[in-house]
Amino acid sequence: MEIIAFGEHLFYKQSQPNAEEIKTLLEGDHKFWLNVTETKDSALLQELSEVFDIHSMALNDIKEKRQRPKIEEYNHFILIVVQMLYSKNHGLDIESEQVSIILGKNYVITFQETPFDIFDQIRVRLENPHGRMRKLGTDYFAYALIDAIVDEYYLLLENITDRIEILEDSIISQDRKVRLSEIYHQRKYIQQIKKVIWPTRELLSIWRKLENPLIKKRTSPFINDVYEQTVEIIENLEMQRESITTLVEIFMTDISLKQNEVMKTLTIIATIFIPLTFLAGVYGMNFEFMPELSWKYGYWLTWLVFIGISAIMVFYFKRKKWF
Amino acid sequence: MEIIAFGEHLFYKQSQPNAEEIKTLLEGDHKFWLNVTETKDSALLQELSEVFDIHSMALNDIKEKRQRPKIEEYNHFILIVVQMLYSKNHGLDIESEQVSIILGKNYVITFQETPFDIFDQIRVRLENPHGRMRKLGTDYFAYALIDAIVDEYYLLLENITDRIEILEDSIISQDRKVRLSEIYHQRKYIQQIKKVIWPTRELLSIWRKLENPLIKKRTSPFINDVYEQTVEIIENLEMQRESITTLVEIFMTDISLKQNEVMKTLTIIATIFIPLTFLAGVYGMNFEFMPELSWKYGYWLTWLVFIGISAIMVFYFKRKKWF
Amino acid sequence: MEIIAFGEHLFYKQSQPNAEEIKTLLEGDHKFWLNVTETKDSALLQELSEVFDIHSMALNDIKEKRQRPKIEEYNHFILIVVQMLYSKNHGLDIESEQVSIILGKNYVITFQETPFDIFDQIRVRLENPHGRMRKLGTDYFAYALIDAIVDEYYLLLENITDRIEILEDSIISQDRKVRLSEIYHQRKYIQQIKKVIWPTRELLSIWRKLENPLIKKRTSPFINDVYEQTVEIIENLEMQRESITTLVEIFMTDISLKQNEVMKTLTIIATIFIPLTFLAGVYGMNFEFMPELSWKYGYWLTWLVFIGISAIMVFYFKRKKWF
Amino acid sequence: MEIIAFGEHLFYKQSQPNAEEIKTLLEGDHKFWLNVTETKDSALLQELSEVFDIHSMALNDIKEKRQRPKIEEYNHFILIVVQMLYSKNHGLDIESEQVSIILGKNYVITFQETPFDIFDQIRVRLENPHGRMRKLGTDYFAYALIDAIVDEYYLLLENITDRIEILEDSIISQDRKVRLSEIYHQRKYIQQIKKVIWPTRELLSIWRKLENPLIKKRTSPFINDVYEQTVEIIENLEMQRESITTLVEIFMTDISLKQNEVMKTLTIIATIFIPLTFLAGVYGMNFEFMPELSWKYGYWLTWLVFIGISAIMVFYFKRKKWF
Amino acid sequence: MEIIAFGEHLFYKQSQPNAEEIKTLLEGDHKFWLNVTETKDSALLQELSEVFDIHSMALNDIKEKRQRPKIEEYNHFILIVVQMLYSKNHGLDIESEQVSIILGKNYVITFQETPFDIFDQIRVRLENPHGRMRKLGTDYFAYALIDAIVDEYYLLLENITDRIEILEDSIISQDRKVRLSEIYHQRKYIQQIKKVIWPTRELLSIWRKLENPLIKKRTSPFINDVYEQTVEIIENLEMQRESITTLVEIFMTDISLKQNEVMKTLTIIATIFIPLTFLAGVYGMNFEFMPELSWKYGYWLTWLVFIGISAIMVFYFKRKKWF
After folding, report:
1. HEC string of A51-111?
2. Can you tell me the distance from the alpha carbon of E32 to that of E219, in angstroms, rounded to the nearest whole number?
3. DSSP symbols for B270-310
4. Which helix (H) or strand (E) holds A307?
5. Which pLDDT tens digit goes with each residue over E218-254?
6. How does DSSP assign E135-195, residue by residue?
7. DSSP character for C115?
8. What is the DSSP letter of E216?
9. Phi-psi region of B158 (alpha: psi -120 to 50; beta: other; left: phi over 0)
10. Chains touching chain E at 3 or more Cβ pairs under 8 angstroms?
11. D67: DSSP letter
């Protein structure tokens, strides 16, 4: 737990503040940011909920993990629940972490399980005395948090786009072996991001239309901007999903084409040589009375027949455009 | 049939109440819950419909089974019809049971065919004198019933998610034999739950907007919460449905790939040995005049030809990347 | 043509009434139902259109067959066109018959081509002096007609559901031979019913919102009920359609799996015996100088080679998990 | 260019009217129809645009071909652009021709490239002094033109429905050879008609709601009627499109089934005879020491083995239900 | 950077104007167009943003590349961001270039990276003293720019349509070899254009409804026209996308049909000759006691059997309609 009080001319940071200190700030004029990382500590959450008068439904939302992103108006604050997404194991897994934001008159409280880098960036930006964050209200601060989280989605999107391009190259060039499971995983990632970004987009859309004294008009172009970013991400995910569908289709068609080629090879060889082998077998029979066997040119005639049959077959396959 | 009268300081339970007792309660100040399990007893239903002045259309809805979940306003009560879903035979079948709820000014009547565990939970919660259920109105009680029913859907969803993950592992690892019927059944279950949850979501959406003196403002955040749970379940079902589609596709592609491999093996072996067998057959012919047969190195030359043809074939297949 | 005048204390039936009789009834106080089966008799229709002052557009709609179900308000009546669906040839064909209903202040006129059983039921219900039909207005009567028609759709739906379940069993158990045309026909039936029920649902949705003195408030719960029945039928048809899609997919996958098995059998047998046959062919050649032929254990050595090659092949296939 | 002035008691026709004559009519009381077929004659169009005060944007729409059907209100007239569709080369091609209609207070101007039959019908109907066309206003006349055009779409729809039914019979009966290109062309036609009919439906939907002094209330049931015709055509096209999809699916499944059968035949014959041929080959070898060869019943024993192996194979295939 | 001041009687062009000159124009009465190509020159953009008082969010949108097309109202100007699309490498790649347009009271500023031909056309049209561009306001000028950009999309659409038609011919005629990657690329291009044109359509839809003093009523028919063009392009893209889907399907079916034919050929030849070869092998065996070998007509009888078996097989295949 860390508290940062800030204003146009103020920047004050403190770790592990006690309830009294928070109350003093709450009743003061300064804006402050309370970042809570101990979301499993029920006693602490209970204490905070009393200090800030947090409704029990809101507290439940903060405690429960993997909630659908949403925005909810309460009497004297707005609760925003979003999901932080980041890739783990070199892009092989997507992990999500819930971030709950309470936006009050002169405070923003964030609840998170583990400290992220992006919150460090926010801290750095807060230290800059000329930044917008110091001048504008708490709603701008909440926007900045969500903006940072949505920016992370772009990284995941890029990751997926890159991998699909590699898959595309592999399939079209027919060079490398394509692992089907790879395609399946990319599809799953797209699904996972979509599951989070759709309600986030919805949340921002609601925010845009919110008539609440906590939301100033000044921040609306910023919210519009993040909103459009979510729309763009969704459109891109949709495009990638379609690309995958097309790739699978091409992959399937390609397998069929190759199978066709394999079968043609077998058929050409087999249909030429099987009749010939039969004929050779005939003259390998040991009947006592087989007049051809004693013909002088029997053997050469047989070869003529062999060549003749082959030629007819080749001509037939040529006309069928099999090779 | 069981009746429970309750209030902030009251908890009173009675089995098989008669019409007189119910009427006394109805005209009294206390809230009460009447749970009817004898929904096939037409006479009883008729009697109740007279006591509570239930419209004939509402009575029909209660009697008929497997109705589409819905909410309907009547003069002095609200009728809610929902479907309880639970899995039977170790998750191999999904059964549904209709629960009709009549929400009146100071009473809630529930109609069900068989006693469920979840109703026991409600009973336990009612016994707690400090619970919300005792303090808040009948609309909160109706909410609690629906919330309990929707919670059961989560169990089914988890069951399906688990089974699909097993299917996924089987297909991607190619280890175990995948039963197509299993995929088919999971799809059916998703369909069955969707068929119930879509109208339930609709019902809750209507409830949210209902302007009815029986619905107090206080309960609206709770209704919002169940509503969002239904939305989440629907999204998850949709995701699972997509997963299945992808899995079937991968399964099909995998079959094609294996078929391809089988065909290649056959083609390679057959195209190499069929011509050779033909040649061996030729020199197995019994013509009297076959000059090669008496050549000194005829046999060894033939082997050279055998090896040469094989080598050319292998080289050809290598270039085609068949192995 | 048959006319039935009815009221709370009246039930009067007459076949082939003439224009004068109809006019007298029309100007009287009693409600009456005029059922016209001679829809091809233009002269009669013309006469009726003059008696009831039917707009020429409405008359056209009545005359033309296979119209899209619709509801249209005219000055002094409402025209409802619906389609009666029933199965013929033991469920192998779906036939449709148009029923046009004109709902006036104190009369309902129905136009149909052939007499149906369901109209007999209506007649029977009318004879009951305590039935709702006798007490409520002409709008309730029109509702009852449509309700009877929609009930028939349920029969068709059940028929389809049964047949699809049989198909399902056949495909999953792989026992019986599945006829593709059967799947195709079930799909066609679903399409046919949907084509009729969608506009019927629309029609009822319009009726619900109609502000017309001919429609009393009292009948609105009844209309709501039929409307919901149509929604339910549509949902069920959609589910059946999805089931068919899944079944076809499973059927296709099953064919592929079987093909795979067939190919493996062929490949295993062929790749084992083709090389062996070649070898046998080699020692069947008649070259004069083939040293192996005179070896004492040549024959047994060859058998050793035969067995060795087979063993290697079998081992290879085992490792590939082909059997 | 042809002008027809008409009224309840008037019918007057003139070819190639000059500007003066048109102006006189324009300022007169009579309704008139000006049919322009010289849409490539820019000078003429310019002249007309001055006489009727046509906005340059409207003139552009008239000149340009293959426009999206639309309706646009201008100061003193309404511009309607529709597409006439007709089949050419015995239903093998669908051609479209643009018809622009300008609906003014007492005039209707139509612009078309080539004279159609349907415009002759209109002319004939105009000659009938008792027809509605003579009595009602110019908006009814515009309706009649569009109605005639939409009626032509029905012909195309029937054409497609017929051909798809033939395809259906061919595929299900497996009698005739199905040409894939035929399926492809039917799909294209459906697309082409849909591309024209969707905006036409939209146009009529706008017309229905148009509040413009040029549109009288009296014509609204007629417009409703054409509108519903377009809806019906769209629904039918959709059904046909679905039928084609199902047919292609059945066709594909059928190919797979046949392939399966072919492969089974091959596999059965090959797996039975290949091992036998090997065995025959073994005893065709010329080793000097092959004890079996001199057994008295060696030959008959071999036949026993042949028959034994075949019987085992046949039994195996029977159990696998391959035939 | 180039500035063109224009009015009904004015046309004045200047390269690289300085801030003072721009300010003078800005405060003057004349309309002017400032075309900025140095969008990477931050200092210049900063200077311009001060001269024209451009909001920092708008400046960001101008600087960032590949933005989603959009329209945004600011205090004293409207920002429009669109994407110019053109094909490169003979239609093998689609490149996009962002064009940002600032529409002010008496000025239009365009920001682009590279000079396009279409802007030269605009310049030429501006030089024409009788053109609409000189007479109408800056909103008409902005419309003309977007119209020119949308016109370019048509070229791309035509390009795609042509290529798909070639693909279609190749697939249906089965003449040329179809490259799957070609199909894939056409799909990608369609996706790319759709990604740009959907938001452009949205943008124009917003523009149509915009109530802003900068937008005069006079230009609304023009905006309507571009809007409809975008709708038409979208519809055409959708049609092309569907065509591709159908083509791929036909392609797949065609492969299956060919495979079927190949397999039939193999099966016919193999099933006829494999049993015969076996029989020939039997009589090639060297058993000492094979009575048939010494029959006088043994050889000819064997040929009879050969021909008999073949005839039966051919008859069987004929009946199965395999050839």
Report:
1. HHCCCHHHHHHHHCCCCCCEEEECCCCEEEEEEEEEEECCCCEEEEEEEEEEECCCEEEEE
2. 18
3. HHHHHHHHHHHHHTT---S--GGGG-TTHHHHHHHHHHHHH
4. helix A298-319
5. 888 889 889 999 999 999 999 999 888 888 888 888 8
6. HS-HHHHHHHHHHHHHHHHHHHHHHHHHHHHHHHHHHHHT-SPPPHHHHHHHHHHHHHHHH
7. -
8. -
9. alpha
10. A, D
11. P
Distance of CA A205 to the CA centre of its chain: 22
CB contact under 8 A, C290 and D286: yes
Model confidence at E268, pLDDT cuts 50, 70, 90, reads very high
Are B218 and B262 a contacting pair, CB within 8 Å?
no
Closest CA to C106 of C19, C15, C10, C5: C5
Task: Check E252 against A254: CB less than 8 A apart.
Answer: no
Do C253 and B251 lie within an 8 Å CB cutoff? Answer: yes
3-state secondary structure of D113: coil
pLDDT at B247: 85
C82: left (phi over 0), alpha (psi -120 to 50) or beta: beta
Q: Chain B residues with CB inside 8 Å of C256's CB?
A: 252, 255-256, 259
Enumerate domains of chain D plus CATH numbers.
2-254 (3.30.460.20), 255-319 (1.20.58.340)
C-alpha C229/C-alpha B64 separation (Å) is 13
Report CA dihedral (E141, E142, E146, E147) to the nearest 10 degrees.
-30
**Nearest-CA distance from A250 to chain E in Å?**
7
CB pairs under 8 A between B and C: 116
Count how many pairs of residues, chain A against chain E, have C-beta atoms within 8 Å. 116
Contact B147, B139 (CB under 8 A): no
- Residues C133-162: pLDDT tens digits? 888 889 999 999 999 999 989 989 988 998
Residues of E in contact with A285 (CB under 8 A): 280, 283-284, 299, 302
CB E112 within 8 A of CB E35: yes
Structure-token pair, residue C269: 């047998």
| Selected residue of A62, A178, A299 to mutate for chain B interface (largest B Cβ count, 10 A) | A299
SS3 A127: helix
pLDDT digits (tens, 9 = 90+) for E172-216: 776 656 677 788 888 888 988 998 999 999 999 999 888 889 998
Three-state DSSP class for residue B73? strand
Instruction: Show the tokens assigned to E180.
Output: 């799957």
Rounded distance, CA B48 to CA B32, Å? Answer: 15
Which chains have at least 3 CB atom pairs separated by less than 8 Å from chain B? A, C
CA dist C282 and C276 (Å) reads 10
Is residue C158 a contact partner of residue C180, using CB atoms and an 8 Å limit?
A: no
* Residue from E266, E267, E290, E304 whose CB has the most chain A CBs within 10 Å, to mutate: E266
Q: What is the pLDDT of residues A209-267, one digit of tens each?
A: 888 899 988 888 889 889 999 999 999 999 999 888 888 888 888 888 888 889 999 99
A45 in Cβ contact with A19 (< 8 Å) = no
Whole-complex ipTM: 0.74
> Which pair of structure tokens corresponds to residue E23?
């300010």
- CA–CA gap between residue D164 and residue D186 (Å, rounded): 8
Nearest to C280 among D232, D249, D278 (CB): D278
* H/E segment holding residue D7: strand D2-7
pTM of this structure: 0.82
Find the radius of gyration of the CA atoms of chain C.
36
Exposure string for B153-170, b = 16+ CB within 10 A, e = fewer? beebbebbbebbeebbeb
Q: Which residues of C touch B256 (CB under 8 A)?
A: 256
Q: In chain D, which residue's Cα lies nearest the Cα of C66?
A: D232
CA gap B146, B122 in Å, rounded = 11
